[in-house]
Design a protein that fits this description.
- By secondary structure, this protein is mainly beta.
- The chain folds into 6 domains: 80 residues, Nucleic acid-binding proteins (OB fold (Dihydrolipoamide Acetyltransferase, E2P)), CATH 2.40.50.140; 72 residues, OB fold (Dihydrolipoamide Acetyltransferase, E2P) (Beta Barrel); 74 residues, OB fold (Dihydrolipoamide Acetyltransferase, E2P); 69 residues, Nucleic acid-binding proteins (OB fold (Dihydrolipoamide Acetyltransferase, E2P)); 84 residues, OB fold (Dihydrolipoamide Acetyltransferase, E2P); 122 residues, OB fold (Dihydrolipoamide Acetyltransferase, E2P) (Beta Barrel), CATH 2.40.50.
- It is 14% helix and 38% strand.
- The chain has 7 helices and 30 strands.
- The strands form 6 sheets. A 5-stranded antiparallel sheet has the order 3-2-1-4-5. The protein has a 5-stranded antiparallel sheet with strand order 8-7-6-9-10. Strands 11-12-13-15-14 form a 5-stranded mixed β-barrel.
- A hairpin with a 4-residue loop joins strand 9 and strand 10.
- The longest helix is centred in the last third of the chain and has 19 residues.
- The radius of gyration is 52 Å and the shape is rod-shaped.
- The relative contact order is 0.05.
- The C terminus is likely disordered.
């Protein structure tokens, strides 16, 4: 090298050639080199791998890019000299598809610049499995790369780190598939979270952890239990080696809390839990992680009429409950809240004995009767058949309206079915038990028209007893329409022409009010015959007449 330095002179120096030089000074950002020219040249410090390895006086070979810059100093490059020297060496040991080691030097358009002895290009799409958003993290790092392409004319090499990683993962995947067995517990990293589960990186391949295998309890979304990048232990549940798929379980790494459930929460035991979900038919109570019980809406209160659970409970609320039943195989526990308090229906027989007179308010009505509130949560029901001795009630609204205060007699009590049967008519004496004291055939009576039908009119007589005037008995002349002759509320005088004690029937005749005894007997006979022919049944049956009148009006 000393001889080369002695022989070299400024006149012999040529641009683009390799020249020997001596390090004369090492600075923080540059290295000063003497090549025997008019002036010394400087080389940027980043062209050297480690400035600490350089020494003043050491000889190095550099590339002379320019004899002089604007300031008269030579433009030198240690890195390009190394690349020029190394290019041939690189080609002898580096072919397309081979593996090389290199250091990331910097960022360039579309990727990174990597030094493998010569500068090579690493496209951004080939940096990793997923193209990174931040390239700065790779600067200064040393990796192995796969050579994708070599351009001899341009002295250009294209590298790929991604393909190398994929090949390594594929090999790892094959090796892992051979080793995996159902029941094994493995460590993995949460790679991706979806609505239906999470993909776990088992260091070689991904396995699916379905949401149903994450917890013995209830979870709404996998993100409630897992975070991306988190390391967890999972159990191998199933392996499909042909399709290279692995099913994983997280809850299987822990004991199933339902295995010993009947000992932990025996029927009849008082338990404490937290409301985790409200549904139209009840509330789910978490007793411990993985164990929930259902309080059905019917088991929430003895007396309150709850239409939806949110009226009584809210999510997150802690409460006590009683275990009513366990279905271990179906993993279901039935709970009750009302069982924490005495059942008021246990005292119903004592408080409302059969035959007792009670008073209450009409709370609700149905087609078959009216519900009377005797106390909060305790109702009795008056059936339509127990509302009147003297008339057939088709709907309770004919007699009652919501909010009415009602007196009644207790007819029957069934605590098991939570039913109390009440009667209103039982407060009064049945007038039909002594009907002869009220009416006899031939009596002239006065009453009020209460209802008009196409076949006749109903007349309310004394003691609430109804009589019926057939259309043929209104007047001597033929009547086409009853409503043309009679109106509701109209006072009429009529004669009793029929009394049927068993059928509770009274037949009336307005036109016969002034008949003689002989005329009355004759009219009674013709009345019976006429009504049977005109209707096909005995229309003096008040119950049937009411039914028919209600249908036709």
């Amino acid at each position: 090298m000393e001889q080369l330095l002695e022989q070299s002179s400024f006149d012999k120096l040529k641009e683009g050639t390799m020249v020997p030089g001596t390090i004369t000074e090492i600075r923080a950002n540059e290295v000063i080199v003497d090549i025997g020219g008019k002036a010394e040249g400087s080389i940027p410090a980043n062209e050297f791998f480690d400035l600490g390895e350089l020494q003043v006086g050491s000889a190095i070979e550099v590339l002379l890019e320019k004899l002089e810059d604007k300031e008269g100093n030579p433009v030198l490059s240690y890195e390009k000299a190394q690349q020029k020297k190394n290019w041939e060496n690189i080609l002898t040991r580096c072919n397309e598809g081979s593996i090389v080691s290199g250091r990331v030097k910097g960022k360039v358009k579309g990727g990174l610049l990597v030094s493998i002895g010569v500068d090579s290009f690493l496209p951004a799409s080939h940096i990793d499995i997923q193209p990174p958003k931040n390239l700065d993290q790779y600067l200064g790092q040393t990796y192995d790369f796969k050579v994708l392409k070599i351009n001899h004319e341009r002295k250009n090499i294209v590298l790929s780190r991604r393909e190398l990683i994929e090949e390594q993962r594929q090999q790892k995947r094959r090796d892992l598939l051979e080793k995996l067995q159902p029941g094994q517990v493995r460590k993995g990293v949460v790679k991706n979270i979806t609505d239906f589960g999470a993909f776990i990186d088992l260091d070689g391949m991904d396995g699916l952890l379905h949401i149903t295998d994450m917890s013995w309890g209830r979870i709404g979304h996998p993100s409630e239990m897992l975070k991306q990048g988190e390391e967890i232990e999972v159990m191998v549940i199933d392996i499909n080696r042909e399709k290279e798929r692995v099913s994983l379980g997280l809850k299987q790494t822990k004991n199933n809390p339902w295995d010993n459930i009947d000992h932990k929460f025996p029927v009849g035991a008082k338990v404490r839990g937290k409301v985790v979900n409200l549904v139209p038919y009840g509330a789910f109570i978490e007793l411990e992680p993985g164990v929930e019980g259902l309080v059905h809406i019917t088991e929430m209160s003895w007396t309150k009429r709850i239409t939806k659970p949110s009226e009584l409970l809210k999510v997150g609320q802690e409460l006590d409950a009683v275990v009513l039943g366990i279905q271990k195989e179906e993993q279901k526990i039935s709970l009750g809240l009302r069982q924490l308090e005495p059942n008021p229906w246990d005292m119903v027989r004592h408080n409302y004995p059969v035959g007792a007179r009670v008073r209450g308010k009409v709370r609700n009505m149905t087609t078959y009767g009216a519900f009377i509130e005797l106390e909060e949560g305790i109702d009795g029901m008056v059936h339509v058949s127990d509302m009147s001795w003297t008339r057939k009630v088709n709907h309770p609204s004919e007699v009652l309206k919501k909010g009415d205060e009602v007196d009644a007699i207790v007819l029957d009590v069934d605590p098991n079915q939570q039913r109390i049967s009440l009667g209103m008519k039982q407060l009064m004496t049945d007038p039909w038990t002594d009907i002869d004291a009220h009416f006899r055939i031939g009596d002239v009576v006065t009453g009020t028209v209460s209802k008009i039908a196409n076949f006749g009119a109903f007349v309310e007589l004394k003691d609430g007893i109804d009589g019926m005037v057939h259309i043929s008995q209104i007047k001597e002349e033929r009547v086409e329409k009853v409503k043309d002759e009679l109106k509701p509320g109209q006072q009429v005088t009529a004669r009793v022409v029929k009394i049927d004690r068993e059928g509770r029937r009274i037949g009336l005749s307005i036109k016969a009010a002034n008949y003689s005894a002989e005329q009355l007997a004759q009219e009674t006979a013709s009345y019976e015959q006429f009504t049977k022919q005109s209707s096909g049944t005995d229309l003096t049956n008040l119950g049937d007449i009411f039914d028919e009148a209600a249908k036709k009006e």
